[in-house]
Amino acid sequence: MKIEKKNLNEALKVLGKVVSQTSPVEVQKSIRFVGDANGITAMATDGIEVISLKIEAFTEHEIDFCVPFKDLKDMIRFERSEMLDIDGVHLDYPQIKQPTADAVSAILPVNFGDLLAQAAPIIDRNNYRRILQGINLSNSGVTVTDGKQLLHQPCPLALSNDITIPFPSALLAFKPTEMGTLQVWENYFCIEIGHFKWTGKLLEGNYPNWRNVIPTDEQLNYCITLTDVETVINWLKIVPPCKEPNGIEFNVTPHGLKLISCRNPHFEFTTHAEVVGAEPKAVLTLDREIILRMLMQGYTILQANSDCALPVLASGGSGQYIAMPIRTIPKPEEEKNMEENTNVVEQTAPVVNPLEELNNNVEEFRNKLKLLLDESNALIRKVKEVSIAQKQKERDFIQAKRAIERIRMAI
Predict the structure, then answer these.
(1) Would 129 be classed as within a structural domain?
(2) 338/65 Cα distance (integer angstroms)
(3) Is residue 213 left, alpha or beta, with left meaning phi > 0 and alpha meaning psi from -120 to 50?
């Protein structure tokens, strides 16, 4: 098979998202090439998902062979010729699941790839709940959440039930720009867009009931519309990032807004904004990273509750962006005082909200799992110690037995 180096490189950018180079299974760390003079398809799998991609390559006869992913990358890196001659060995490839006769089909719009690209940064890929590592698809559209923020993008899909697909790494790398199809059957799915085809398993479990999280217009009694968005974004970028909650206060003034960093109070910024509705009783505080992502995706209209007791609903982009306000972030001076005086009265607990409650439950369960893991490791160590002690007793017994035998023989 002959293929241009640039075409192979573009294909590997997509296929490499599912290749497992550390897997002991040869097929899972290789790229399969199958086809004939009429066309060639490159394939990759991690044992669960299968990515197929039609490529621009040439062959005079029917082919079906696999080449290690690493070898292909080395060829691109070290071969001087722009046209590569590739050959490999035949491997037993896992059977690819095919849609059944009762499979549900839905048309994917042209902007489906863009919707997933906007949703991807919100997904917590390290979440212990596998279901939250995916993207929820329904007849209402595309939805993602990490427990602190939620993005819902209307996209009518002909689905009778909600489904959750894994994180679409390969699809994001492919960057589709045309319509496609989604097929769902049993616990499998298949997405086909142009030359790209992705078959895999749906994520099991119940996705959070995100519809109940979205507050109504009656519950959100005031609205902030940012008018100088670019300037606000540039200011947010210079605010130092922080792994802990990095809140930005939205202080309403007669002339607009004054933004103040909770972690770095000397970082403040005044901007023009339209504020209508009830007068805020509490200062709205949102996480820096969430605000940045929100504004960069065009969500510049913030509807909030004057008591900061409900999630903020942002609009202006392609859908609805919901974010939990941060109720209390100690200033640096307050943190110092709290360290010096351990008898400081704790602040009033915030009103429990759906997203916040979900996040708290996740953290609580994670801590329980960590505690159980520590206890399990301690038990494993004790079992090993007992096993070592038992083996030592067996060795002592054997040595004593041999010594007795030697004494008997000497007598």
Answers:
(1) yes
(2) 66
(3) alpha
pLDDT at 358: 67
Q: Give the domain extent around 309.
A: 214-333
Provide the domain count of the chain: 3
Cα 208 to Cα 136: distance, rounded to the nearest angstrom? 10
Are residues 56 and 139 both part of a single domain?
Answer: no
Domain for residue 352, yes or no?
no
Between CA 262 and CA 283 the distance in angstroms is 12
Count of alpha carbons within 13 angstroms of residue 156, beta-carbon side: 0
Residue-wise pLDDT tens digits, 361-379: 777 777 777 777 777 777 8
Q: In Å, how far are 2, 104, 122 from 61, measured between CA atoms?
A: 12, 36, 46
CA distance 389 to 10: 58
Q: How far apart are CA 175 and CA 113, in angstroms?
A: 6
Residue 339 pLDDT > 60: no
**Does residue 122 sit in the same domain as residue 63?**
no
Decide which of 208, 242, 257 is a domain's last residue: 208
pLDDT tens digits, 308-324: 888 999 999 989 999 99
Nearest one of 57, 15, 50, 51 to 36, comparing CA atoms: 57
Which amino acid is present at 256? G
Q: Which helix (DSSP H) or strand (DSSP E) does residue 210 occupy? A: none
Q: What is the total residue count of the chain?
A: 411
One domain for residues 126 and 179: yes
Comparing C-alpha atoms, which of 316, 389, 46 is closest to residue 198? 46
Extract the tokens encoding 67. Answer: 């080449």
Residue 313, strand partner residues: 303, 322
Q: Give the residue from 85, 115, 130 where a domain finishes.
A: 85
